[in-house]
Amino acid sequence: MKKELRDRNYRVDETFKSKIVMPGFIDQHLHPVLGALTLAIEVIAPEDWVLPGKTFRAAASEAEYRARLKAAEAKLKNPDDWLLSWGYHSLWHGTLDRKALDAISSTRPVAIWQRSCHEFILNTPALKALGLTEEMTKGKGTASEQSNWEDGHFWETGLNLMIKPMMNVLASPERLSRGLKQMVAYEHANGVTAYNEPGALYAPDMWKLYEQVLGAPDTPMYSTFIADGRSIPDRVGLDKALDATEAQIAVAPEGAGKKLMFFPKQVKLFADGAIISQLMQMRDGYIDGHHGEWIMPPAQLEERAKLYWDAGYQLHIHVNGDLGLDTVLDVLERRMREKPRADHRTVIVHFANSTEDQVKRAARLGAIVSANPYYTTGFANKYGQVGLGPKRANLMVRAASVLKNRMPLSYHSDLPMGPSDPLYLAWAGVNRLTPSGRVAGPSQRISVEAALRAITIEAAYSWRKEHQIGSIAPGKIANFTILEKDPYEVRAIDLKDVPVWGTVFEGRVFPVPESMKRAERAAVPAPQDAAQRSQPASISFRKYAVAPRNEACDMVGIARVASKAYEENLASEK
After folding, report:
1. DSSP 3-state helix, strand, coil percentages of the chain (rounded to 5)?
2. Where would I find the beta strands (DSSP E) of 25-149?
3. d(CA 11, CA 5)
4. Those residues with Cβ within 8 angstroms of residue 250's Cβ, 6 or more apart along the chain or in another chain
5. In degrees rounded to 5, what are phi and psi of residue 194?
């Protein structure tokens, strides 16, 4: 820096001489509305959720889950208040249905939001409070097939039968505002200085709330967005989709001094289903016989990819299964043959399941990867028992293979699918430890250096922002994450617990208040033999019908319904 400044006046600030200054951490991909809503209610999940000033510890068994739910109900003083909880997953918490929730309370409405955000389970008072009847669930095609009135269970397309009144309860102005403020504090405590929501929604009143909370003067991070290449053409048609996409981006174009912005000429597309519901499309199917789904059927993905590729857009494509990845790579190869583009940086998003040949092919085609390393840590044990089987579960997120093939690798949380804690994500990629202490796929562990690049410069590269953020260099924006310990010096097993002192955002210092600092996560047992496996689980995934999803059947769609509900609630309050 002194060399760059030459004879100009400057002052050396030694505030951080006893600390570690890192490039500002980046969460390449998360969902602010869903992060705000899920973490603003009672969290009872298979893993710890460490939030500012409080920690929701993991519930690892059915008995523990039921006890925590009963305790949460007992804390509510007003008999009319809803008991709302997020994080339930049958593989950890056993079967849950309307009868079980009626036993928690036969008078208070109870709604359980499943860990994937793709399912709800309601008790009898909740069904009544939402104005739902059994007749309303009949004759609705796939939506009726993917709901069970007797159990109070709605999943995937079945969410369309109840999601709007449910979001009128969840997405109140008070809760959403509080949840977004908590999310900002959570991101700051974890050292995040920039994040992105791909497939972002836009509604006028929701954007005003974003400006009030995410764009506030004391919010020390960028909230960036990528347009949704699925819903926009669905709404206006292919012939008008490019103009409509540009109109959405123009709502908040990028620019100096702005905290909220859409990235120009970038768009989000989808291939197959969600990993947490095990609805990704797999070449060899699932060991329990259920089937995956397409979010965008291959022909539709081809159509949209061609539209945006030919117009010069960078594609970010959600894909989780190896069959889904085949489809994505086929689409990309056809685009490169028909209209070759240098430096297109097509991002393979999530990258749960793949083969070595697919990684080599992706590298040859010029794709890059933004992976979620939490998949291995959080799900390899259970998915080795149910659905995938040990080999495929252990080799989820082939990060080392990506690097071996010289592909850029970034990490993201997909909040609330994984914790938005970049050091924890880096720890997961370096160690690949499961909660039992087992190393899942040791050959796919990566170095600390590569993991730290994945949450800084490589994430910036995936956004085409590597010349502005992601590393420390003269001329770049002064965004830093300040650590109390050197992540290169601590043991790899301790990387997740390196304390975050605070951040510097555009040159302003933002310490994390003591009351908001991230607590240590529960200790993980020492690594065990990689071949050790536990006994098969006794519960299997629901055998979902294969059907294309519509607006309410994924996280972007649910967030869009939440936005509409927020606007209706706001109008009602006014």
Report:
1. 40, 15, 45
2. 25-27, 42-43, 49-51, 54-56, 83-88, 110-114, 119-122, 147-148
3. 11
4. 262
5. -160, 140
What is the C-alpha radius of gyration for the chain, rounded to an integer number of angstroms? 23
558 φ/ψ angles, rounded to the nearest 5 degrees: -65, -40
**pLDDT bucket at 528, cuts 50 / 70 / 90:** low
How many Å from the N-terminal Cα to the C-terminal Cα in the chain?
53
> How far is Cα 230 from Cα 490, in angstroms, rounded to an integer?
44
Retrieve residue 218's tokens.
């004391």
Q: Which amino acid is at 324?
A: G
CB 494 within 8 A of CB 377: no
Record the pTM: 0.91
Query: 């048609």: which residue's tokens?
Result: 237
- Residue 73 tokens read as 């109900």
Distances from the Cα of 309 to the Cα of 237, 242, 335, 368, 385, angstroms = 17, 11, 7, 16, 40
Contact 482, 19 (CB under 8 A): yes
Tens of pLDDT, residues 414-453: 999 999 999 999 999 999 999 999 999 999 999 999 999 9
* Helix, coil or strand: residue 73: helix
In degrees, to the nearest 5, what angle opens at C-alpha 329 toward C-alphas 323 and 332?
A: 150
Which two structure tokens, joined as six digits, stand for 79? Answer: 């008999």
Distance CA 372, CA 396 (A): 10
Length of the chain counted residue by residue:
574
Q: Which amino acid would we find at residue 567?
A: E
The answer to whether the beta carbons of residues 311 and 264 sit under 8 Å apart is no
* CB distance 563 to 31 below 8 Å: no
Whole-Å CA distances, 143 to 133, 192, 270, 549, 561? 14, 39, 21, 10, 16
Whether 366 and 411 have beta carbons less than 8 Å apart is answered as no
Amino acid at 384: G
Residue 240, C-beta contacts closer than 8 angstroms, at least 6 positions apart: none
How many Å apart are CA 178 and CA 180, to the nearest integer?
6
Q: Specify whether the CB–CB gap between 424 and 372 falls below 8 A.
A: no
What's the pLDDT score for residue 537?
34
Angle at 226 between CA 224 and CA 228, to 5 degrees: 145
25 strand-pairing partners: 192
- For 113-147, the pLDDT digits (tens) are 999 898 999 999 999 999 999 999 999 998 899 89
Contact between residue 245 and residue 304 where contact means Cβ atoms under 8 Å apart: no
